[in-house]
Amino acid sequence: MTSSLLLSLTTFAYLLCTFLYLAGTIFRFKPLLGAGAITGAATLLMQTAGIGLRWVESYRMGYGHAPLSNMYESLVFASWAIMIIYLVFEWRVRQRALGVFPALFSFLAMAYASFAKDVDSKIQPLVPALKSNWLIAHVMTCFLGYAAFAVSFGVSLLYLIRKRFPENPNPRGGFVAFLPGASQLEWFNYQLVLFGFLWLSVGIITGSIWANSAWGAYWSWDPKETWSLITWFIYAALLHARNLKGWKGERVAWLSMIGFGCVLFTYFGVNFLLSGLHSYAR
Question: Are residues 116 and 182 in the same domain?
Fold first, then answer.
């Protein structure tokens, strides 16, 4: 299928994008960072075309549903969401040295989707529980939140690295000379967490409405629901501590990273280690 070919090429294109961002940062060579941004944007367009074609192909096969119904399709969308959020953010803040981790995460998501034996890439009919108009709203909002948290995780790592160096390093002081200052990275992290928190909140709300129509209850304490709520509370605590308690710096960065660890467990850990109403998402 054409969509499978495009999405396979996307995997390797994101790997190239990662190397360009990494090389540009390490060697402090701006043209490589520019090439990384261009490669990321071109790959995003190719991936968008692949997702669109997969959607069309599902209609041709008689299934007719958005490509958001299983682990393969959600991983593809997750990588897409990470890159589009990052590229918009990069365009706003004009800091291309932040692109290494978002490009890496997009590549890893696509690589796992493409090569893992436990991920089925075939287009399949929807199970009854997924036959709802809430499918697109719920999955897209949740994964936009997860994607923002992934970018935030990368910024938090860069913040912790940056804190080990003075604010105005010697131009010969290594790749850190290309990074924004620690205070700027801290502000970027806050913006990304706030953006992700808003989308995750909408995702939980839409999921609750969908659950009520599908299973007759807004909340069932399913493992996926429970861990989504745990993730929400961690990021809510981060925002509360920063805005009302004055937390900044390393404590916020570490809390952001812990929150993303919960995101990963909500997605992978619950799917493979716990069973529940969301087990069909495998």
Answer: no
